[in-house]
Specification:
phosphoprotein; AIP/AIPL1/TTC9; 239 residues; TPR repeat
């Protein structure tokens, strides 16, 4: 049992991976024993019980498939720190190529993998330290690419969350304001969209034609919505 005392944390990470989540989700920058004391509940009754009462474990391993040598591409969680750093530019490039081919969900998945690699490394650094900031600056363009994919997939609230997180750290990021403005416009947050587009123009006046196009589109949608509302409410009040 003494050899598996930290297994519940490992198992939670594996379950996160199976669910497509970050394997270190919910963990903070500290040692394994501190993690053990930090988490009074792991979110799974069986793991909570095993954490309280460590038991000898027996693992059954099932072979699912056999791949040719050199054909296997490691998941980010399985890479060493050096492998993660080397993989990020390649994954980024793969994402860009998929996006150019119009395979937007697949591109988003690639950008997510690259972000996960860097986030994993960043968790090992002290927040605000030079190394942490350097990694964060590598994450930002990938996150903006991810947001562009999510815009096209009409997942607007995710775009709002990610762009806001970027702007909380980098107040002069024009792309984050622009993408957040588009997301606000899509969910009818008119004042917020106008404020974000105004900020884009203040930071980069050369984007005026692009912003003007977005504002015209928003105004046209508002007029159409107003017409639809008048027809709808007219029917209600005439009864």
């Amino acid at each position: 049992p003494q050899h598996v005392v930290l297994y519940p944390m490992v198992s939670k990470s594996l379950r996160n991976i199976a669910a497509g989540k970050d394997p270190l989700e919910g963990q903070r920058h500290c040692c394994g024993i501190a993690q053990l004391h930090e988490h009074h509940s792991l979110g799974y009754e069986d793991l909570d019980e095993l954490q309280k009462n460590p038991q000898p474990l027996i693992f059954d391993i099932e072979v699912l498939k056999v791949e040719e040598p050199g054909s296997y591409q490691q998941d980010p969680w399985a890479m060493t720190d050096e492998e993660k750093l080397q993989a990020v530019p390649l994954i980024h490039k793969e994402g860009n190529e998929l996006y150019r081919q119009g395979k937007v969900p697949e591109a988003a998945s690639k950008y997510y993998d690259a972000i996960a690699c860097l986030k994993n490394l960043q968790m090992k650094e002290q927040p605000g330290s030079p190394d942490w900031i350097e990694l964060d600056q590598k994450i930002t363009p990938l996150l903006l690419n991810y947001c562009q994919c999510k815009l096209q997939c009409q997942e607007y609230y995710e775009v709002l969350d990610h762009c806001s997180s970027i702007l909380n750290k980098y107040e002069d990021n024009v792309k984050a304001y622009f993408k957040r403005g588009k997301a606000h416009a899509a969910v009818w947050n008119v004042a917020e969209a106008q404020a974000d587009f105004a900020k884009v123009l203040a930071l980069d006046p050369s984007l005026r034609p692009v912003v003007a196009k977005e504002l015209r589109s928003l105004e046209a949608r508002l007029r159409e919505k107003d017409k639809e509302d008048k027809v709808r409410f007219k029917g209600i009040f005439s009864q």
